[in-house]
Specification:
seven-stranded mixed β-sheet; alpha/beta; 23% strand; disordered N terminus
Length: 436
């Protein structure tokens, strides 16, 4: 254990030495708070009223309260908050009217039905908790963007055209359409009520500059580090219509460094998974796979330099060239499976998996930008607002989380996937020098 701590210490020293101060000054250090999937905090079954050991919602409010307390308006350095979706857990409908109207049918799926059963408690517990958390962020004057994840749709159901294989024993099941069947989603009435363009958060916000579908995808601008940034919060596996809208927004803000947040995009192996049991293109062809989103939007819009995503449990980083030869940096973070806080409080392990009941343990990603150096850089840090420590400060971090997120990884590699540096080599060539 001491070996990876020592190695990480050397890496942190290296971070401090990278880059050179810009002659004549300019630039700034600031942070973007990346909020991974929070559905297990807001889940109504993870509260004391349902017999759970703790109120997991308190972890969620604690996390967003910490972010708010570290906003620039309150003397901190957080300039923007980027969610990657799955803000709450359960659906409100068995199937949405839109998909039912085009012939979709819901079929039983014993692997998922208990998890995706609609409940009136979503409107009474889960969505109000989500709103209360982001109200803390809004009250701190922080601009933020939230794309919907699959759990944020009104309905998530197994499509009749791709039923599960019920002939196999549980130990034979693989995470494929052939075995698990195909899940689809539909309807965003609940999401729009909480985070639509006309919601309390965005209706009068000058930094909320555009939206699609009433706010199912949205655009924000913010200033930090001597630059004005554009942020796009895009629906997962977005349609061609959404991608066309995104291109129009980018055209309205030429020259702005652009960040995209979307839910399902990169796997923990730093690859894009196309064709999983949540492949929307198989159920409704208007969608695009993550690979198609890259080819149709992210690779061809040279202002996009950073993509943030969640959905898959774990963490990963990928650097790619766009069609112009510029860097596109993609960051995955999803800590929803982490349940040490529940164990500490006496919550039994999940009897099916033998793992802690997933919560998140307060972990989030902090993207610490430094534009005072050339080239600029981002120090990627993982921090728990519950434990009040960074990943590198927790001696049991690898023991708690590695084997069910990145089994087979060495201790050092697991930690290196949590805290590392992204050098924005071509940032100045693309976006110029920072304003003073």
């Amino acid at each position: 254990m001491r070996t990876w701590l020592a190695a990480l210490g050397l890496a942190v020293v290296a971070l401090g030495c990278a880059g050179s101060e810009i002659e004549g000054g300019g630039g700034e250090r600031f942070t973007i708070a990346m909020i991974p999937d929070t559905q297990n905090y807001t889940d109504y079954t993870h509260q004391k009223a349902e017999g759970f050991a703790i109120d997991a919602s308190e972890l969620f409010l604690e996390q967003l309260g910490w972010v708010a307390d570290h906003a620039r308006s309150r003397g901190g350095d957080i300039a923007f908050v980027a969610s990657v979706g799955d803000t709450w857990q359960h659906p409100t409908k068995r199937i949405d009217p839109g998909h039912e109207a085009i012939g979709h049918e819901r079929v039983a799926n014993p692997f998922f039905d208990a998890h995706f059963t609609p409940s009136e408690k979503v409107a009474k517990v889960e969505i109000p908790t989500a709103i209360a958390g982001y109200r803390l962020v809004a009250d701190a004057g922080l601009p933020f963007g939230i794309p919907p994840g699959n759990h944020d749709y009104d309905a998530m159901y197994n499509v009749h055209t791709h039923p599960p294989d019920l002939t196999k024993r549980p130990e034979e099941i693989t995470f494929t359409v052939e075995d698990l069947g195909l899940l689809h989603v539909g309807g965003l009435e609940g999401f729009l009520g909480a985070f639509g363009a006309d919601s309390e958060f965005f209706a009068d916000a000058p930094w909320y500059v555009d939206s699609f579908g009433g706010g199912t995808s949205s655009a924000q601008v913010f200033e930090a580090g001597g630059y004005r940034f554009l942020h796009l919060a895009l629906e997962m596996q977005a349609s061609d219509e959404v991608l066309a809208w995104a291109r129009e927004v980018i055209a309205k803000y030429p020259g702005l460094p652009t960040i995209v947040s979307t839910h399902d995009y990169l796997s923990p192996k730093a690859t894009r998974i196309d064709g999983s049991f949540l492949d929307f293109t198989l159920a409704h062809g208007e969608h695009n796979t993550p690979r198609q989103m890259f080819e149709k939007l992210i690779a061809v819009e040279s202002q996009i330099f950073l993509v943030l995503c969640g959905h898959y449990h774990g963490q990963a980083y990928l650097r790619e060239d766009n069609v112009a030869g510029f860097d596109v940096h993609t960051v995955l973070a999803d800590y929803q499976d982490r349940g040490q806080v529940g164990l500490d409080a006496g919550q039994p392990r999940d009897p099916m998996r033998g793992l802690p009941v997933g919560l998140g343990d307060g972990w989030l990603r902090l993207l610490e930008f430094d534009t005072t150096v050339d080239p600029p850089r981002i120090a990627m840090r993982t921090y728990s607002t519950h434990y009040g420590k960074h990943a590198s400060e927790m001696p049991d971090y690898v023991v708690w989380y590695r084997d069910h997120e990145q089994k087979g990884m060495s201790d050092a590699d697991f930690m290196a996937a949590e805290e590392y540096e992204i050098v924005l080599t071509d940032f100045r060539a693309r976006f110029g020098a920072p304003s003073r």
